[in-house]
Each structure stands twice: as structure tokens, then as C-alpha cells.
Amino acid sequence: MSERKAPLDGIRVLDLSRVLAGPWCSQNLADLGADVIKVERPGMGDDTRGWGPPFLKDADGNDTSEAAYYLSTNRNKRSITIDIASPEGAELIRDIAKQSDILIENFKFGGLKKYGLDYESIKAINPKLIYCSITGFGQTGPMAPLPGYDFMIQGMGGLMSITGERDDLPGGGPQKAGVAVTDLFTGMYATVAVLGALQERHRSGLGQHIDVALLDCHVAMLANQNLNYMTSGVAPERAGNAHQNVVPYQVFAASDGHLIVATGNDSQYRAYCQVMGRPDLADNPDYVTNRQRLTHRVALIKELEAIMKTRTRDDWISSLQKAGVPSGPINNIQQVFDNEQVKSREIWKTLPHPVAGTAPSTANPIRYSDTPIQYRMAPPLLGQHTDQILEELGLQGRK
After folding, report:
1. Which positions, given as ranges, span the membrane (predicted)?
2. Fold of 249-338
3. CB within 8 A of 302, min separation 6: which ones?
């Protein structure tokens, strides 16, 4: 039996995106086996190439030109440099688009039209192309022409109103997430959208335009918090490290540090009470069900906090995990990669790199049984594959 090919083997992606949301999408597609051609500005490239320190170091410990941020989103791609603002460059993009299956771009609304690279122009020369536009606010609506960035969308889209400590406590106030979650979610939604359009093309033989907006994706990802508001008419507020809908589900201070206890159902709560040596808290009519625990949250948490301070963090975690109660430490990133579970899943990857010798990479979390993710290439140097790509497409000499 012949070896099965990667899911997107034979699919060509023309990637005009930069920074995070678009490259996150195209890296997903590249990991699934697509040939992703990353188009970059001559002499400059993707903005994130300069978003350092830290930079990847060579064998002598010296900084290279490759910023860690850029490395995080551009694995398994090939880089070509083209000046799309020039008539020759725009024409070259159109010629590559004729031979591509997917185009991803995150220019401002209408930004590619002046170059003849908008959807309608590309559709006229390749009606099978799936064209994905990622913008701050989408292709319609009063804010469509405005630029949008992750941080401002986290504020505008409501996340910062429910993230961080309560306003009445020390350190309270708006807080952004520690990574650009809006960009990352948008990149994931764009990936799903592209794969759906690719499947639909099997039936119709035609491509289509995909309109993905940061604000739309951000609001969508608020999930249960949206429904908390939509069903009650009351906007959720910041709750610190507690859960809006589940109790107990939060950070507790032990005698020597902090841990998370996350009881997702009543049976886990009862097991938690047994570990604490307080079965009476499980039988108390005020605390029997999650609904009752929510109603009496303040009184219950006061009791739990006092008990949790009587033992060490690791002692609690060991006992709780043996009892099937979800719990764990609050790790920094170094501790994450030192974790035996993370090591066993081989989440830290090392790829050959043409300048540094090797480059680290975070494994794709998708685990296929028969077509595993292949880590073919480290993020490319600027323009590393220009000649190779042009030759493959029969476009030699077109720079």
C-alpha cells in the first residue's frame, strides 16, 4: 500500500498576508501539506521579521535577522519577494494566482483594487480560486475602511471588560490577554473557512470570496459570555481568576504558592470536598448543585480559601489529581516546556535553518493517525525561494 499524502498535498496557496492573523492561517494550511508561497516586500519582508529582540541566534550566539515573532507563524512556507506596487509586480502576482488554489490577504479594505489584485480582478482570470480577505472590520459596514489591530479589538470587542481582576480589588481594571487572541482566533476561523470553501469547490468547481473580520471573530469567540448577556440583559463583568458560571473554578492560594481548582460538575465538587476532609461542604444544601454554589459563592469561597492555605501547592495537586479533580499549577513558559506531558507530546520541535543551523518551533496540535503533520521547513529567509518558485511556475526572469 502506498503512503498516504498530506491532506492538502497538491494545493497551492498564494499568501499576501503579513504579521499574525493571515500568516497563522497560512501556516495551518502549510502544516496540512499545502505549498504556501509567501509574498514579501523586497528588502523588508514581513513586518514581524524586525519585531525583536529576541532574534534567532546563529551557531556563534550572534543575532540573525530572524525575529522570534516571525518564526512563530511562518513554518513550512516558501518566500518570494515581489513589489506588488509596481505594474510588473502586480502582473506577476496575477500570473501566480492563475496557478493557485487559494489566495490569502490582509490588506485594508479595498487596498488591493488599485493594483488589480482585488477579488473581482483575480476571479476573472481564475474563477476556481478561493480568495480569503482578512480585515479589521470586514468588507461591509461603516467601519470597513478603518484599520484594525488585535489590542484595540480586544478592548472594542468586549474581552477586556471581562478579563482581569475585579474593579473593586487591588490591580482591578481592564486587562488584555497575554497573546494576540483576536488575531489567532481570526487565523483559525480563516483556516476553517478556507477548508470549507475548498470542500465546496469539489462540488461546484468554483472558488469564492471569504470575508473574515477581526471584530466578528472576536465577538464570536466570547461564547458563553455573550449568552450570559443575551439571556439576562446584564453585561458580564471582570471576575479575576474565578468563573462566571461555575463554582469552585478558580485560583486558590496554598501555603506556599497558588494552584487552580476547576470542578466542572457536581461529582467533581464532591470529590474535592472529600480530599479536603470536608464532606459536610458537599452535603450542605446551599452547595449541593452548581446553581446553589453560584448563589452562595461568597460564603463557600471564604471557607475553601481558608482550607486551601493549610497545605502546600504540590500536595494539593497530587491529592486532587488522584481523586479525579481537575487541578494544576500556574506555570511560566519555561515550566510549560519542562512539563513531562509536554515533553512526551514532543511539542518543542527543532528544524534545520540555513543561517542559524537550527530553529525551534512549536508543534502543530493536530494529530492525524495516518497523515501526520510534516515539519518540512523552518520559516524561510526573505526571498529564499524566489528563483525556485518562478522556475517551477514557468515565470523565470520575472522579478
Report:
1. none
2. formyl-coa transferase, domain 3 (3.30.1540)
3. none
